[in-house]
Write a structure and sequence with these properties.
The chain has nine helices and 15 strands. The chain is α+β, with helices and mostly antiparallel strands and 305 residues long.
């Protein structure tokens, strides 16, 4: 839906699109949008103020703006809206800006953006310093952060099916419910890295494929992953007891999961991940059932950072 109060594009004006998820971050999206919008317009930008009634309409709006030749697509929301925006701008040369207002904000963390001050985040858009980063791609769909393809993905599936409670507690309850019945999964990974192809067959608790180092609001599962090295970081946590899985969980926040004996880490240009019954998640969004082949696409995204 276009904002009718937006000024028309003037000759020489710098036009950008601002796409918002107003419900992100328990309502922070709308508040941060309003603050950023004022700052951007005061600075001389002509801003298309947009929000979709659902994800499909938001994506159509984003693609339409890119096709119209806006100077940048700026999203105001969390990693889910970044994910949507990336699908619209990847490979086009149109930069993606971000006013963080989600609960996780891992992409904002990657880029060193202010996560609680929308006016400061808008000032980064105004400064217009660009950076080129890699993306991960499977088929025609991209992601920025981490693809989860194990216990964490199963928890996401259960949590999304629950209508109560809201917020983090829903994921905590889903985690406890899945822990009761979870069994290690049989994986086959086809890894293609600098030393040639490798096949890894194992039982594991989870497999994560990282373009960046963290997901889920700072869970550093693929610690050390870089956004511009042309590689994906594949982490496997092989079979362990449930009690050790619970004890190891805090290490994800410190980036020290690599000190767990069951930790396997590979850097690759592409990977095929196969396991029965798993629907993967990437950037916190439902991505697709395994098997999936994921490749690194170097320099696919220009960001305002």
């Amino acid at each position: 839906m276009h904002d009718p109060s937006a000024p028309e594009l003037s000759v020489g004006g710098r036009e950008i699109a601002l796409l918002t998820n107003p419900t992100s971050g328990k309502g922070k999206g709308a508040r941060h949008r309003d603050a950023a919008l004022t700052r951007l317009r005061e600075s001389g930008f002509v801003v298309r103020n947009l929000q979709g009634r659902d994800a499909d309409e938001a994506y159509d709006l984003a693609r339409g703006c890119v096709a119209d030749g806006v100077e940048a697509l700026v999203v105001c929301g969390g990693d889910g809206l970044v994910h949507l925006g990336v699908q619209a701008v990847a490979g086009t040369g149109v930069p993606l800006g971000l006013i963080p207002s989600g609960t996780g904000n891992d992409v904002a963390r990657y880029l060193g953006l202010p996560r609680t001050d929308p006016v400061a985040a808008a000032d980064r858009i105004i400064a217009s310093r660009h950076r080129t980063i890699d993306l991960a791609r499977s088929g025609d769909r991209y992601f920025v952060t981490v693809l989860a393809a194990g216990f964490d993905a199963i928890v996401n599936e259960r949590a999304n099916a629950m209508t109560w409670p809201r917020g983090q507690m829903r994921y905590n309850l889903a985690t406890l419910a899945e822990l009761r019945t979870f069994r290690p999964l049989p994986y086959v990974l086809q890894l293609d890295g600098g030393s040639g192809p490798e096949t890894l067959e194992c039982e594991a608790m989870l497999v994560a494929v990282g373009n960046g180092p963290s997901f889920g609001g700072g869970l550093r599962i693929t610690e050390g992953a870089l956004l511009d090295d042309g590689l994906l970081d594949v982490v496997v946590i092989t079979r362990m007891s449930k009690s050790k899985l619970v004890r190891s969980y805090p290490r994800l926040f410190t980036g020290r999961i690599d000190r767990v004996a069951e930790y396997v880490h590979r850097r690759v240009t592409s990977v095929t991940v196969a396991a029965p019954g798993i629907v993967s998640y990437a950037d916190g969004e439902r991505f697709g059932p395994l098997p999936l082949t994921i490749e690194c696409v170097p320099g696919a995204l220009e960001v305002i950072a």
